[in-house]
């Protein structure tokens, strides 16, 4: 029960049926049609165990109109007892044509008397696990419904017209009357369902607003760039001009940082839109104001790439930068920790090692998290605690190359300010995407030969098989060997997650420096790797990747002035989801359109992934379908908080319990 999250009575009351079985009527056997699921009642005329073609229990059941066969391939002595000749049974199952006449295979059954009453409501079938029988769950839910506090929390007039009370809605959904249209229950359009969706969306909007107000009451150091300071020096020293979008976003962030409340801003921009330089400019504001800045990335490769860029831009301006990762050991690590704690290092770049307990900042004013959806909520909360012991919180700037569709920004990110880089730097070339079945591998290798002959470089990406690092390694190693044979005289490198950090860095440096022409890699190169000379990417088993991951990988090419191609190799047959993903990749390069389609394909729970550390906050509402209810919930939430704060608290607690804490990150 605990694994299913069924801890409180209210959790059981909100554990809604997946579907319903109609046990309210009995169909005469003669009137039942093949392919239908029906309930029949009769007496057992014959019951025997047959051993051929396999051991099975065959039971003949007859009523006044006809008879049928019940077939059981798995059965116990207790079943044989209940199904003995002469027993009166009520049986429910799908009727099909069989060798011995019409039959039901493994129907549900129970012994009855002539006067055993029929069910008066549809029988619920609940989401369960193998160890949790339906009968037990039904009992638990029924008794929880009598105990759970289902009183109306919302003030009169606040629930949309035509919707029942929560208590009426839940009692109805757990035990609907037999005459109700099943379709309205299955497509969740029934008013009882609408009430649950509304309440859930309202709880989610309220918790976002509460988080926002709590943050507004917190203090953060106001950070302002001085005239002629680092910020202006960096702008003057950059070897390129900022795009209009970069200018706009930099100003939005600077305005935020100057306030005495913690910034909570998401910077989203498509692959290659220039987020790193915006982060560097934000860092200069914090450093100018006398505070430290931390920049955190999900992988060492990406963290190191940021580090190299930032060193190139900021060290000439006299900014001391520290580097922290999990693979650092001994004296080097101790020295870095000392530089951070003393405040000598004004900028600290690294992986999640930056938030470990041993890392103490002298004055952390700004934290920048790249690819923020790759960090769990707990890690983000940990970063915010780095100023504990002072009355101040650091400002938080999160960056993502997976754009958030507008409906999601309105719900999951209602508490965030969002800045968007919607313009690519000049000189970027559009990428052509081609989709090929695995059988065309040879022509793909021929294309690689042509690219390498022109002095260009190529990525070949193998999927990560999560269950088995060994298989994943074997796949990448075999591909590396095959390409080495097929491309004599061409330098082919190999990069995978199990290599020591130093070895990874060495391979990456050889590829970046042009020494390696082809790089066979697992998805460790997914984000941030910048090699302008790479013009071709081949993604093997593309059907195994998610849409946003494919888009991220594709963004590793097309970073120079050369026309670039991304080849998606798939192994047939493709599922419908696989087809939809590959079609989206071939049709558009726009990250926002990709994100919208990804949301359509996967649904919001999965799309959000790590934001809720796997706990999807919306169980009943659907953002695409329930936008009208969402608009009503958004309108009501601030009024409730203002005029009925206790009702608002009770409502959030009923729906979210401890999950509300997640929204603060």
Automatic annotation (TrEMBL):
It holds the Pfam family RecG_dom3_C. Plays a critical role in recombination and DNA repair. Helps process Holliday junction intermediates to mature products by catalyzing branch migration. Has replication fork regression activity, unwinds stalled or blocked replication forks to make a HJ that can be resolved. Has a DNA unwinding activity characteristic of a DNA helicase with 3'-5' polarity. Coiled coil: none annotated. Residues 440-605 form the Helicase C-terminal domain. It catalyses: ATP + H2O = ADP + phosphate + H(+); Couples ATP hydrolysis with the unwinding of duplex DNA by translocating in the 3'-5' direction. The lineage of its organism: Bacteria, Pseudomonadati, Pseudomonadota, Betaproteobacteria, Burkholderiales. It is an enzyme of class 5 (isomerase). SMART domains: DEXDc, HELICc. This is ATP-dependent DNA helicase RecG. NCBIfam families: PRK10917.1-1 (NF008163), PRK10917.1-3 (NF008165), PRK10917.1-4 (NF008166), PRK10917.2-2 (NF008168), recG (TIGR00643). It comes from Methylibium petroleiphilum (strain ATCC BAA-1232 / LMG 22953 / PM1). GO terms for molecular function: 3'-5' DNA helicase activity; ATP binding; ATP hydrolysis activity; DNA binding. Its EC number is 5.6.2.4. Residues 256-421 form the Helicase ATP-binding domain. One of its GO terms (biological process) is DNA recombination. Belongs to the helicase family. RecG subfamily. Keywords: ATP-binding, DNA damage, DNA recombination, DNA repair, DNA-binding, Helicase, Hydrolase, Isomerase, Nucleotide-binding.
């Amino acid at each position: 029960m605990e694994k299913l999250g069924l801890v409180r009575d209210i959790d059981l009351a909100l554990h809604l049926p997946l579907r319903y079985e109609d046990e309210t009527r009995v169909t005469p056997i003669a009137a039942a049609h093949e392919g239908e699921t029906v309930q029949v009642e009769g007496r057992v005329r014959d019951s025997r165990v047959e051993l051929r073609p396999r051991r099975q229990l065959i039971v003949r059941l007859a009523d006044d109109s006809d008879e049928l066969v019940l077939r059981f391939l798995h059965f116990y002595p207790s079943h044989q007892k209940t199904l003995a000749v002469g027993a009166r049974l009520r049986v429910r199952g799908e009727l099909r044509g069989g060798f011995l006449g019409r039959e039901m295979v493994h129907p549900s059954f129970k012994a009855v008397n002539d006067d055993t009453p029929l069910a008066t409501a549809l029988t619920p079938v609940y989401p369960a696990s193998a160890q949790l029988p339906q009968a037990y769950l039904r009992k638990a839910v029924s008794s929880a419904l009598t105990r759970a506090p289902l009183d109306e929390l919302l003030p009169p007039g606040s629930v949309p017209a035509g919707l029942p009370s929560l208590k009426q809605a839940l009692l109805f959904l757990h035990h609907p009357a037999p005459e109700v249209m099943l379709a309205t229950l299955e497509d969740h359009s029934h008013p009882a369902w609408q009430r649950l969706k509304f309440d859930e969306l309202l709880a989610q909007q309220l918790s976002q607003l509460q988080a926002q107000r709590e943050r507004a009451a917190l203090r953060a150091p106001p950070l302002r760039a001085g005239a002629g300071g680092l910020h202006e020096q960096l702008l003057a020293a950059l070897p390129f001009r900022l795009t209009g979008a970069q200018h706009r976003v930099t100003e939005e962030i600077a305005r935020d940082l100057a306030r005495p409340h913690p910034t909570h801003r998401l910077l989203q921009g498509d692959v290659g839109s220039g987020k790193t330089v915006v982060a560097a400019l934000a860092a200069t504001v914090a450093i100018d104001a006398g505070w430290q800045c931390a920049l955190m990335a999900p992988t060492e490769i990406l963290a190191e790439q940021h580090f190299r860029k930032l060193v190139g831009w900021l060290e000439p301006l006299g900014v001391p930068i520290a580097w922290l990762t999990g693979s650092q050991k001994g004296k080097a690590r101790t020295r870095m920790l000392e530089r951070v704690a003393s405040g000598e290092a004004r900028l600290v770049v690294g992986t999640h090692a930056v938030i470990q307990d041993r890392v103490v900042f002298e004055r952390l004013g700004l934290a920048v998290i790249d690819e923020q959806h790759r960090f769990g909520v707990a890690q983000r909360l940990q970063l915010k605690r780095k100023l504990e012991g002072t009355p101040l919180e650091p400002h938080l700037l999160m960056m993502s190359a997976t754009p958030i569709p507008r409906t999601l920004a309105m719900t999951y990110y209602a508490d965030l300010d969002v800045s968007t880089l919607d313009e690519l730097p000049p000189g970027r070339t559009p990428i052509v995407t081609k989709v090929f079945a695995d059988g065309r591998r040879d022509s793909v290798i021929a294309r690689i030969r042509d690219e390498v002959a022109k002095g260009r470089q190529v990525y070949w990406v193998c999927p990560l098989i999560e269950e088995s690092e060994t298989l994943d390694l074997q796949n990448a190693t075999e591909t590396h060997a095959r390409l080495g044979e097929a491309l004599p005289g061409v330098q082919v490198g190999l990069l995978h997650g199990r290599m020591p950090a130093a070895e990874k860095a060495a391979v990456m440096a050889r590829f970046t420096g042009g020494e390696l022409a082809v790089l066979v890699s697992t998805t460790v190169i997914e984000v941030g790797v910048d090699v302008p000379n790479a013009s071709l990417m081949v993604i093997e088993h593309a059907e195994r990747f998610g849409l946003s991951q494919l888009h991220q990988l594709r963004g590793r090419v097309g970073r120079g002035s050369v026309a670039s191609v991304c080849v998606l190799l798939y192994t047939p047959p493709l599922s419908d989801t696989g087809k939809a993903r590959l079609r989206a990749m071939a049709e558009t390069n726009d990250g926002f359109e990709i994100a919208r389609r990804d949301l359509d394909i996967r649904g919001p729970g999965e799309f959000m992934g790590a934001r809720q550390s796997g706990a999807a906050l919306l169980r009943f509402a659907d953002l695409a379908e329930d936008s009208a209810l969402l608009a009503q919930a958004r309108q009501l939430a601030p009024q409730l908080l203002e005029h009925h704060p206790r009702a608002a608290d009770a409502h959030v607690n009923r729906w979210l319990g401890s999950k509300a804490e997640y929204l603060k990150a």
